[in-house]
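ingest -> fold -> write
write: protein_1
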Amino acid sequence: MSKATKAFDKVTQLEKDGSNWSMWVTRVQRAAGSIGYNKYLTTAPTSVAEEQQQDKDLLNSIISTLPDTIFRHYKNKPTLKELWDALKQDYDTKDPLTEDSLEKQLFSLTCTNPAKVGKHIDNLITIMDELAKHGVSIPDSQFKLAIISSTPNMYQATARALITVYREEPNKLTLEILITAIHAEAVMMEVVLQGFAFRSFVH
């Protein structure tokens, strides 16, 4: 498995209608940046064999997140930059995620599955990033409420415990502290659920 393939393992597919375009772009950029390949989104590779291979690996990884109906329109793009430029030209202008819809998503998304809370928090962070790109600033206090109110009860207990700890100085309960605590709880929950599933399989 190449570095690019591994980095894109959790990048969700672009919807056929492009409805998740903004979030998909952000996830692609983060995945490419995590392995130092993000330069190929804007710059064609040189003739150096290593760069040619890296560009090819990243191109194939991004293609794997495109539905067939979209890929057919861009299958003849030989480099990632050409593919990326064509996609952005076609989809940036018809991005359905307006400021209003992004804010609505931020405060309406909920997660009832304890095993998917980590992904849910990542989705909320992605929406915040998109709002920032649109010039919309959401106060940390509101984002904290969006996180706490949209997670299952067991995670809300973790949040309440943190609020109690920082009750004398609530401003010290930063978003980073809250998100880190919930992510840690999510990882523990995933381990517990995997262990339960394994024991059920054995028996």
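write: protein_2
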Amino acid sequence: MGTRPGERVMQPDYGCRLHDLVFDPMTAETEAEIEVAITRAILFFEPRIVLNSVQVADDWRAGTLRIRLEFRVRSTNARHNRVFPFYRTEGTLISAPPEPGT
């Protein structure tokens, strides 16, 4: 959701249009555009899940927008996994740092 279309090298269509809609007035049309943008991004670029629904609700008094995704994980550790972020301390071959003086 954080990648804009055109940011990925050699994948100009990859991404989601949410950034384009940030400053649009909150109308029913904008909510529908947000739902379509998220649905399209997940449908085309996230093979690990099946999207059941996208719900957009705004609270104009608080200036917030809530987006609820309901989905089902297809399987785990498929070869299409894209994992972010990467942690330095994760892994199977990580050992403790050497003690000073050893």
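write: annotation protein_2
The helical segments are 28-45.
Residues 52 and 63 are 27 Å apart (CA to CA).
pipeline exit 0
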